[in-house]
Each structure stands twice: as C-alpha cells, then as structure tokens.
Amino acid sequence: EKVKPSGKDRWMALCPAHNDRNPSLSVTALPDKILVSCQSGCHINAVLAALKIEMSDLFFDSRKGKASAPQGPKEIVATYDYLDENGNLLHQTVRFEPKEFRQRRPGKDGNWIWDLKGIKPVIYQLPRVKEAIDKGETICLPEGEKDADNMVSHLGLVATTSPMGAGKWRQGYAQMLRGAKEVVVIADNDPPGQRHAQAIAASLLAVQVPTKLIEMPSADIKDISDWISAGLTADQLKEIIGGLPPYEPPPAPADTSDLPVIITTGRFLKDKTKDTIAAV
C-alpha cells in the first residue's frame, strides 16, 4: 500500500509485516534480483511471508531473462501453538495452502520471526502433557498437529506430537515425556512415517518411558485422522492399546563381518570340493 517512487527502479511502500503508517519498505529492482528491506527492522522472512512470496521469487532466472515463476499466493489455513510448561507461546507451526509448513516465533511489537533460532523447541500441547503425566494418563503421539488435535477433539484422548514432521524428532522431546505412565506412538502408513515412529519409540525407551506402537490397520488408511474418519472410536482404540505388547525394537541385522568369504573357480559344486575346502 501507498507505493511511491523514491528513485530510479526504487519504491517505498507500507511494510506488511508490521503496523506501518509511514512507508518503510524499500523495494529496489536490480538486473539480477529485487532487493526488499524494511527500514523499521522487520526480518526479511516476515516481510516475504506477509507478501506471500518466496525468497526465490526475488531472483531473476538468467537463462530466461526473467524472474522465476512465482509459486502463487499461499494462504495460511492453520496455526499450531507450541507452549512452554507455563502456557507461554514459544513457537508456532504454520500451515499454508498449497500445502507447506513453516515455523515461526514471536518477535517484538507483535511481529513474527520466521525461524526457530535461539529457542529450544518443545512438543505440542506441553502443559496438557505434563498434566497427563501427573495424573497417570496414557499419552498418544501421532505424526503431525492435525492428527493430535483430531485425537483430542474426536476421541477425547491426550495427544502430542513434535514439530516439523517425520525425521525431525529430538532426544530432548523424549525427556519431556519422562515419568509418563505410557506413551502410544502412532505410525503413519508410509515408510518415512514408520521409520519416524520406530525412532520415537526407541528414543522413549532410552529414557525408560513405557511405550507401545500402533500401525494403521489397512493400506487405504494413511494416518490416525483417516482412521477416525473411517469410524474409529475412543473405546475401540483403547481396546487396541490395551491388547498391545510393550514396544520392542526390531532385531539388528546379523553381523557377518567375521564370516569367511569362500571363493571358488565357478565349476559345478561336485567339481570344486578341493577348491572349497582349500578356501575354508
């Protein structure tokens, strides 16, 4: 808004990342890129998010002589707050449509900083998790905030997850679950999701948290939200959990490094007895 020329190939405008009244956003067009800077100090990531563009959109494609095609406007469709034990907002996962997830943290004057630098991420719904630990309640741990929210709202269970999805689990998250009566890890129905769930379960066992692991019942159900949509009830899930054995990591592959390597001449077995014996 209030875009005004301020020189050759340069403009000033109201910065969309803060409550700007006097144009403080500088935009400069260079031969190979566009420079964007908020003179009031907003982080570039906050400005780009407010403009609904990516960093790559500011650079020109030298092979085609034009800017890279924008990905199109992205709309925020959900936000998931990550709170400390006292209920203070530490960071937030933001879901965009077309589907994309980004992390941000509170900045000054109500602005957002689009990274997690300088903070220690926590698990989702940490205050409720700590309450469940104190009360001896079972805690469910699916992959993703939407699944956790669906377990709470549709099944009435305690549920948490970790930020940033599969493959991003940290051992520090397991420490936040120490003392839990039981944690039930729920695997998504794909190889990354299954590996992620097994890594979490092993991480929890390492800090002596009683752990169980649930996999999806059929190929057409990809996650717990699908299962709920298919008619899963809280009583059914509790019965399934009750019948599960404690999680045990899969056995490690056998170590064959000390076994002899037998090399023969390639003749039929009946013709290479001497060669084989000699090799052994």
From TrEMBL:
InterPro entries named in the record: TOPRIM_DnaG/twinkle
Annotated source species: marine sediment metagenome
UniProt xrefs under Gene3D superfamilies: 3.40.1360.10
Name of protein: Toprim domain-containing protein
Pfam families, per the entry: Toprim_2 (PF13155)
